[in-house]
Design a protein that fits this description.
5 helices, 29% helix, four-stranded antiparallel sheet, Jelly Rolls, alpha+beta, 29% strand
């Protein structure tokens, strides 16, 4: 999964289609959304391998991000009793994870240094949690500015894979991701201000929850 995600950050940050409300000549500028996914991947890999350096790298990335719990409603709107809870990673929690690993004195000093770090204003991203029944889809309407790099991603809880499809207001496909992963990333530059429809599908046989991330 971490290797697949690393490849996704390199491949899916560039849109798959060059038609519709998209500037195909604009360079990709992976930002806060891609960085958050990278931090999540490093954190999970570091825990699995008991590698404090990977976990510390994730904490360092997260210190440069601000994640806001944003109220957004998909169509169809899930029942209140099935509402998902947003549980994002934060630098303090990730640093605590690093402390629980067999780090040794060198990494202990590095943990303390990262905890004291200050830097430029953090990059912002918006997050919304949702649940999705098996073999069902939800759509989200999102607006992005023309000429500005747009990022969106789906980060699942591992219960089921998720498929992502992004279309512009004419129905032209901008990004599409299908596979066995519960994570999908899309980045593109709209040619003009516009609304885009994100369709998230659960192709599995069990319900799952996910987080929608946007810049």
């Amino acid at each position: 999964m971490p290797i697949r995600l690393t490849l996704a950050l390199l491949i899916c940050a560039t849109p798959l289609w060059a038609d519709g409300n998209i500037d195909p000549t604009a360079p990709a500028h992976p930002g806060a959304v891609a960085l958050y996914l990278q931090a999540r991947s490093l954190h999970d890999l570091g825990q699995a391998q008991k590698d404090p350096l990977l976990v510390l790298t994730a904490a360092h990335i997260l210190r440069g991000l601000t994640l806001t719990d944003t109220a957004r409603t998909p169509d169809p709107d899930p029942a209140p009793e099935t509402a998902a809870t947003l549980m994002p990673l934060d630098p303090a929690t990730v640093l605590d994870t690093a402390r629980t690993l067999d780090a040794g004195a060198m990494f202990t000093d590095l943990i303390d240094m990262i905890a004291r770090q200050t830097g430029p204003p953090p990059k912002s991203l918006n997050a919304t949690a949702a649940t999705l029944d098996p073999a069902q889809s939800q759509t989200w309407t999102l607006s992005f500015f023309g000429g500005a790099y747009a990022e969106l991603a789906i980060l699942g809880n591992g219960a089921s894979a998720v498929d992502l499809r992004v279309t512009d207001d004419t129905g032209q496909v901008i990004c599409q991701d299908k596979g066995s992963s519960d994570t999908a990333l899309c980045g593109f530059t709209p040619a003009e201000n516009g609304s885009f429809t994100l369709t998230v599908t659960n192709p599995g046989t069990v319900a799952g929850s996910y987080i929608l991330l946007t810049n």
